[in-house]
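Sharing a chain and its predicted structure for anyone who wants a worked example. Both blocks are below, sequence first, tokens second.
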Amino acid sequence: MKVINTISDLRAFLDLARREGKTIGLVPTMGALHEGHASLVRRSVAENDVTVVSIFLNPTQFNDPSDLERYPRTLEADCQLLDACGATVAFAPTVKEIYPEPDTRTFSYPPTDTVMEGAFRPGHFNGVCQIVSKLFSYVEPDRSYFGEKDFQQIAVIRRMVEDLGLKLTIVPCPVVREENGLAMSSRNSLLKPEERAIAPKIYATLANSVVFAEGHSVKETHDFVVTAINSVPGLEVQYFSIVDGRTLADVKSWDESDFIVGCITVFCGATPIRLIDHIKYKGEE
């Protein structure tokens, strides 16, 4: 596996691959890789001749400087994992390489990017679109792979791809979970042992709510989830939204859409770690 740090070297390598008729897959990441990322890389390796994995902790998508500062950085271990998964290139640029000047572009795709994470983390999705659009322009992939744990992010990126008229396929990949049900996340490494013990209750509650929803309204299901999670000491729901799985607009009735998803963010612990997850109530299995 090659480790490339500059845009010019990356483009030169990929131009040669394209001239040879090779297909290119891209897996954008912020590093601190785990088995969830590995599953995306392995799928790209299986479906493309060349797989590029970006490792870049993007500052423009953090609206909380302390959150950026705390985010784990494990470049050496990341490269070892990628090599073992069969990745062709690890693209690990500096911030100055990606942003030699401030990126002043704005992206707006309401309601997809204004609800949930968009409402609680102003500017977050604009930063996501800035970096992902840059990566798409550098790599020009045939396919790009994203984990469904970041369910809203995939919806926003699809809107951006359509808006920019890009010729690539967005490939969503299933959430990879630990044995206890906790969605794998780079932030999990920040959890203390006592926090790891309670964090799985998030998904357990979501799973229970699917059965609950069969005999209850959307509002009753919403309240069931929030009450159950907030009753666990050390867990606090920031938001739980039951939405149309395509537009991310709130639904009030199970009959409003053929694809309905519950998206949640929970603070875990005394120095709270934000954990996100989702559950599908209807459709798109």
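Comments welcome. The two ends are 35 Å apart (CA to CA).
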